[in-house]
Design a protein that fits this description.
Blueprint lengths: L9 H39 L5 E9 L4 E7 L8 E7 L4 E7 L6 E7 L8 E9 L5 E3 L4 E4 L2
Antiparallel strand pairs: 1-2, 2-5, 3-4, 3-6, 6-7, 6-8
């Protein structure tokens, strides 16, 4: 008869090993999930931007206090969160972010209030907001001369 049997039984040892493996998998998954979510957000913006066909048509006029730009969105792409207008002359430029999507096949007037004297051109770009609410500009911006 064994009176002083010390140590863990096989069942308890197996359960402890399984528990340690599950904890290790959980820690690794948290790290990998963060990397995957950050990368997928950039991929989503990267695939949505080339499909957005946003153009300046018609009027591109500026007076002393504001510039009115007529934008047209052709078919394609998903809804974006706004348009960035950069009004500039050869020396300075002013940025105006205008929230709101332009529906496909729709023409809209957008007004920028730049502090630029005698502006000569306007650059437009659609943008999205990431999970931290930062603006992510589409790289396919368009530049137009102001009349």
């Amino acid at each position: 008869m064994i009176i002083n049997k010390k140590g863990l039984s096989t069942v308890v040892t197996t359960l402890i090993i399984i528990l340690l493996v599950l904890v290790a998998i959980g820690i690794i998954w948290v790290v990998i999930r963060g990397v995957i979510e950050t990368g997928s957000e950039q991929i989503d913006i990267g695939t949505a931007c080339p499909l957005i066909d946003l153009r300046v048509i018609g009027n591109k006029t500026c007076d002393g206090t504001s510039c009115v730009v007529t934008l047209e969105r052709r078919a394609g792409g998903k809804d974006f969160e706004g348009v960035r207008l950069v009004v500039s002359n050869n020396v300075t430029s002013a940025v105006t972010d205008i929230d709101g999507n332009i529906d496909q096949l729709v023409t809209m007037d957008k007004t920028a209030t730049p502090s630029v004297a005698n502006p000569g051109k306007v650059i437009i770009a659609a943008y999205f907001r990431d999970t931290q609410n930062n603006i992510q500009l589409c790289p396919n911006s368009q530049e137009y001369n102001i009349i």
